[in-house]
Amino acid sequence: MVDDLPELRIQGTWVWYYAICRREVWLMTHAIQPDEDDPNLDYGRFLHERALTKDGEEVLLGVNRLDRVIEKNGDLVVIEIKKSSQAVDSARLQLAHYLRQLELRGVQASGELRFPEERRKEVVYLTDNLRDQLEIIYRGILAIIDQPVPPAPEWIKWCAHCAYRDFCWS
């Protein structure tokens, strides 16, 4: 039964963070909240709300929140809105995760990454390569969740603007 698949418990944001910082995946999945007053989180929420106000409402898919789902030329398109394209590979994997979640439920769709501040879009299709990457990521996320403590912090370029930076580096 498809509902029993462990990957259906995985949220798209976990996939995004797995590609950037595995410690953050552990923190998120163990309900350790980031600094909600972090200006980067505020700005991201602002962009997200502005885009949703213009384009419609989020769609719930299991444990996932899809920014937008539209019909384009008779096809279903999942829209993912990001602040910038700096982490485009992570964003692509997150969107592929949503496409995979739909596919597991018998629904075919393509995706579109939108970077409103850059006035840029990228079309994403769920390829065999992305499916293979997702299988590895799903196993990795489930292994991280089962760890009793978070992975040790590793300084990466994203740390300087991360809402967990004080938690990791104080």
From TrEMBL:
Residues making up the signal peptide according to the UniProt record: none
Pfam families, sorted: Cas_Cas4
Record has Nuclease as a keyword: yes
GO BP term (any one): defense response to virus
Cofactor, free-text remark: Mg(2+) or Mn(2+) required for ssDNA cleavage activity.
Source superkingdom: Bacteria
Co-factor requirement: iron-sulfur cluster; Mg(2+); Mn(2+)
GO molecular function: exonuclease activity; iron-sulfur cluster binding; metal ion binding
Annotated keywords: Antiviral defense, Exonuclease, Hydrolase, Iron, Iron-sulfur, Manganese, Metal-binding, Nuclease
Assigned EC number: 3.1.12.1
The keyword Iron-sulfur appears for this protein: yes
Residue intervals of the DUF83 domain: 11-170
Function: CRISPR (clustered regularly interspaced short palindromic repeat) is an adaptive immune system that provides protection against mobile genetic elements (viruses, transposable elements and conjugative plasmids). CRISPR clusters contain sequences complementary to antecedent mobile elements and target invading nucleic acids. CRISPR clusters are transcribed and processed into CRISPR RNA (crRNA).
Family according to the record: Belongs to the CRISPR-associated exonuclease Cas4 family.
PANTHER family: CRISPR-ASSOCIATED EXONUCLEASE CAS4
Family matches, as NCBIfam families: cas4
Protein name stated in the entry: CRISPR-associated exonuclease Cas4
